[in-house]
Amino acid sequence: MSNHALVLFAHGARDPRWAEPFERLRQIVEEQKPGLVVSLAFLELMTPRLPELIAQLVQDGCTEVTVVPVFFGQGGHVLRDLPVMIDEIRHQYPLLQITVAPAVGESLDVLNAIGRYCVGMLGNG
Amino acid sequence: MSNHALVLFAHGARDPRWAEPFERLRQIVEEQKPGLVVSLAFLELMTPRLPELIAQLVQDGCTEVTVVPVFFGQGGHVLRDLPVMIDEIRHQYPLLQITVAPAVGESLDVLNAIGRYCVGMLGNG
């Protein structure tokens, strides 16, 4: 495997259908970047959680991880819960290079794409 | 105002910063479709809630509403909570034409844009 892994970090939910777009996104990123290992990790209610996924990636020989929060807003989960988890991971794996990107909702390109989708949903009304 | 309003329906959170990307999205959609009234509504923790926003839109003369759930996944909130709210709104405003779009995470264009953002976050590593 590549030494650099991408982790898509999402909230999680009780309903298994909730994970479907994230799994689709995972496949899309793998297609956009062949050879890259792309994994999902969840904050709660779904597995794997971030710490157990990181443990697995390290065991597989990964030396660098980029975590992208697949959240629209930078609320408590991204600004408070995630940094605590990342600190613990850094403490546990001091040799692992770990980067946390801003949440996807911070990307203007992403918001523009959502905007186009919204306008498209208006139909002819 | 236009008779057709677009409502961006989001989850809500305690942290006010959480609403920022949704407000940015609201402005983007208004720029993409000048003249369209675009409003935010929240499921919980933030205001306005969907029923009170709809009441206001109807009072302002709106006759048609398109609700776009700004959620990645179609979990319990979109598949269970939202339809209940929409049913109540339909019951209360039988003349209002109300359409609910699939969640934005169902759009392949949106997922592709998120994917490009993720790949961009890898840097040169």
From TrEMBL, chains A, B:
<dbReference type="InterPro" id="IPR050963">
    <property type="entry name" value="Sirohydro_Cobaltochel/CbiX"/>
</dbReference>
<keyword id="KW-0479">Metal-binding</keyword>
<dbReference type="InterPro" id="IPR002762">
    <property type="entry name" value="CbiX-like"/>
</dbReference>
<dbReference type="Pfam" id="PF01903">
    <property type="entry name" value="CbiX"/>
</dbReference>
<keyword id="KW-0456">Lyase</keyword>
<dbReference type="GO" id="GO:0016829">
    <property type="term" value="F:lyase activity"/>
</dbReference>
<dbReference type="GO" id="GO:0046872">
    <property type="term" value="F:metal ion binding"/>
</dbReference>
<protein>
    <submittedName>
        <fullName>Cobalamin biosynthesis protein CbiX</fullName>
    </submittedName>
</protein>
